[in-house]
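If you are new to this repository, start here. Below is one unmodified record pulled from the training split, so you can see the exact layout before writing a loader.
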Amino acid sequence: MKTQLRSIENQLHKTYKLLAKRVFPFGPMKVFGPEHEFSLVNEELKPLPIIDRVIKDFCGNVVDFVHTPRFIFGKETSLQTMEIKAKKPFKSPELFEETMQFAVSTLLDFLNTKYGAHLLGTGMHPLLKLEDTSIWPHSSQDIVEEYRKIFNLKSHSWLNIQSFQLNLPYFNEKNGINLYNTLAHVCAYLPAISASSPIYESQLGPNIDNRLYHYKMMMQEIPSMVGDVVPEHISSFRQFQTEVVNRYSQDLANAGAGKEILYKEWANLRSVIFRFKREAIEIKIMDEQECIKSDVALSCFIRATVRGLLAEKREPPPHHLLVNDYNSIVKNGLSAKVLHPHGETARQVCQHFFSLASEYAEKNEKKYLWIIKKRIEEGNLSELIRNRVLTKAQKTTFTEAVVSVYLKLVKCLSHNQPYF
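And here is the target side for that same chain:
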């Protein structure tokens, strides 16, 4: 086994050397590559673990993903979760919004007609109990079984988290490293704006962003797979291989994992990861929002903020500071106390980022930034949901209040209307 691992490491070393010499086809951050995750629910918000049935009824067979002319949809880890993603990257935020809303509308028409079902965004289903769903039981079982050897898959970490993921291309190694380190800086504070998971198992969770709390617990048996969630600063692709990929792969091997999940870039669960086969950096930190327009707004905000930070050519804060602030934000959201040089609270840091984004945003990005401005001023989606549920619960049961608020979020996704 050790000889086999050494052989894989040597091959990876050669691969990373070749990557360091390549110039990639897209300009830095010139396109958007989104991936969305939604729960299937009925009229009473009950989770529907039927994604395999949906896929079979839609295309005739149970497959991982269905490729339509304009978008792709398919399975996630749990049976009540559907992933919808881009067929190809989008060159403009308008095309991003129009195409992904077309995907949502197309699938909603099918789901409504066939099953009386709806799609729900946000970072966690608020009522789901673990016995209500299960792991996708069809293809890719070799990978699932390798994970099952080591991890507790019957947990919210695996069965009840929904993220909005964004892929941004880089141009070459130098640009990729700069972009990666700058995204690590931004993503430490982004949950203050993107949190949308205040409730799970019919109770208020202890954090503003409960998805991210469970996300870190996902790999608690092999901590090196997720690290501190905030990525460590790196200076080369080779360092990334040695200090990140090799380390978690060796830890997995020591725990008895097979080759199916060793030395895989997708096994890295930090909030920002290199996806070399995609020629992009993937951002995994964001909770899924209530509608596509809000996802587009987050994407424009990230690009414009990073553009501004790179233009300023300032070194990102040290890793330990970012980790401290990130953990505080997961717990307390926009009101979190932080150590950043541009603010004592997460809200103040986000206001600084928003000023940069407003200055460096392209014209077609600026028209989405009003959503981010309102989130910073009035509260992230998690804080809004929490407050609305608690207000309604004064006149009814807590569960009825949850259902009432989240059914409005179901309509927000259908109508592509932000929730304020």
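Two things worth knowing about this chain: The mean pLDDT is 94. The chain has one domain: 2-415.
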